[in-house]
Amino acid sequence: MSRLIVVSNRVNPPTGAGEESVGGLAMALAAALRQYSGLWFGWSGKTTPSFTGVLDVQTIDGVTAAVIDLEEADVEEYYNGYANKTLWPLFHYRTDLTAYDRAYGAGYQRVNKRFAETLAPLIEPDDLIWVHDYHLIPLARELRALGIKNRIGFFLHVPWPAHQVFTTLPGHSRLAEAMFDYDVVGFQTAEYCQAFEEYVLSEASGEQPRPGQLQAFGRTLSVGAYPIGIDAPDFARMVKSPRARRMRNVMDACTVFRHLIVGVDRLDYSKGLEERFAGFERYLADNPDMRREVLMLQIAPVSRESVEAYQEIRGRLDGLSGRINGEFADIDWAPFRYVNRNYRRDELAGIYRAARVGLVTPLRDGMNLVAKEYVAAQDPDDPGVLILSRFAGAARQLDEALLVNPNSPEEIADALGRALTMGKPERIRRWRALFDNVEREDVTAWRDSFVDALAGVGTRRAALAG
Ligand code: ADP
Ligand code: F6P
């Protein structure tokens, strides 16, 4: 069987100590790597004064991780710069926050080249290579330049924007061309896949010989939608764990005679937190008789703190959360709890389980795994209600949630009213449909369908080269 090499900016293998602090994606990739006896390659998260390319290799719990340090200029121009000040805002439709700086573009190319040069000597002829996310779009091109002919796949975890938005990027054609050095490219939803196809057909004189295939820049590419899921069996096990039960009891004790509304997100402007806070504020204003009946808990660990847009939104959210409690709290009661720390996955499972409402309202999101985790954690006999943004990739699968426009605090407030008064039969009916999907289209299905597609491409490239 071929080895699988997974490449991602961050590498999070399980610790082996049962801590399970890593997310669902990391757990799934780790499982895939164990199955294919593979390698996980990426950035260590650390910096050195100058780039050395020295690999730190560790095998934990059957998963071999090989990581490299980057120099400070790399982190500034590649990670903070092109990845998180250019591509992230652009792909989430925030052209107002998108920075176009040639130094960032150069740093992005440089780091992708460094990744390729360090990885290439580790690659064996039969290896399948699976590259993840917007940080590494040009990686296949750099590997091909070094003579690597293996099958290489790419999965984009974030949205691919409409072509009118993508074309605002200086050098968009070069980035799109780099996608054609892969054999298979996967998107979270059919909508993102179509947006890419539309760009290729209208801006790159491409052709579509048949559905799922694109030709442009002298090459042929397989494209498709591969919606990512969570590790549903693992999450079901975690919900029953002692830690999850303890956390649930803690939450129950905080909400005696009250309903818990929960939000869990990285502190990111794409997550719609300001509008969500305003929606809750609106709900409290419109429903004075419910004020003592609800508690909203927003968990939002800080993220990408070196990027100004993240510092700014953090400041605004601190102000908004203070305003809501200032306006509505009483000496013996406060409606809103806002915490900026990380929790273990089993603790999160207990928090989700205790919540009558899961409030997941990103302005744009490639998929959103929190929505799926919330569904997986519910009590089948008395489930809570998921309120979900129609602009999250997950809305394509989870259409029995209460779908809202996340830009509208009024819609969020109305959905809260509906969720908090929804009878048990309707909650159970909706939850069953949601849970069926979360269970069926889980992370194993995602991983297997992508790896099968990649393996099925055969040795087309070798044949072409021959
Ligand atoms: P994104 O990839 O943009 O951060 P997702 O919703 O797809 O958004 O995935 C976020 C993952 O991070 C989920 O698995 C979620 O459980 C986890 N997560 C989010 N907030 C926390 C937190 N405070 N503590 C621990 N894990 C968290
Ligand atoms: O889902 C998008 C994503 O950028 C992932 O690639 C990444 O693991 C996660 O969000 C967290 O972002 P970061 O690695 O920048 O902390």
Look up the CATH topology of the largest domain: Rossmann fold
Biggest sheet layout: 9 strands, mixed
Radius of gyration: 23 Å
Present as ligands are:
adenosine-5'-diphosphate, 6-O-phosphono-beta-D-fructofuranose
Number of helices: 17
CATH level 4 superfamily of the largest domain:
Glycogen Phosphorylase B
Q: Helicity range of the residues?
A: 40-55%
Distance between the termini: 23 Å
The counted number of beta strands is 15
Pick out the low-confidence regions. Answer: 458-466
Number of spatially distinct domains = 2
The assigned CATH architecture of the largest domain is 3-Layer(aba) Sandwich
Which percent band covers the strand fraction? 15-25%
Assigned CATH class of the largest domain: Alpha Beta
Tell the overall outline. Answer: globular
What number is the mean pLDDT? 93
Structural class: alpha/beta
Strand order of the largest sheet: 3-4-2-1-5-6-7-9-8
Describe the structure in your own words.
By secondary structure, the protein is an alpha/beta fold. The chain folds into 2 domains: 4-229 and 443-461, Rossmann fold (3-Layer(aba) Sandwich), CATH 3.40.50; 232-440, Rossmann fold (3-Layer(aba) Sandwich), CATH 3.40.50. It is built from 17 helices and 15 strands. It has helices at residues 24-35, 72-91, 102-119, 139-145, 163-166, 172-179, 190-203, 232-239, 242-254, 273-286, 308-328, 345-354, 369-376, 409-421, 424-440, 443-456, 460-465, and strands at 4-10, 39-48, 56-60, 63-71, 128-132, 151-155, 184-187, 213-216, 219-225, 259-264, 294-299, 336-339, 357-360, 385-389, 402-404. The strands form 2 sheets. The chain has a 9-stranded mixed beta sheet, sandwiched between helices. The protein has a 6-stranded parallel beta sheet with strand order 12-11-10-13-14-15, sandwiched between helices. Helix 13 links the parallel strand 13 (357-360) and strand 14 (385-389). Helix 3 (102-119) packs across helix 4 (139-145). The longest helix is centred in the C-terminal third of the chain and has 21 residues, at 308-328. The protein is globular. The relative contact order is 0.11. Mean pLDDT is 93; it is low at 458-466. The structure holds adenosine-5'-diphosphate (ADP) and 6-O-phosphono-beta-D-fructofuranose (F6P).
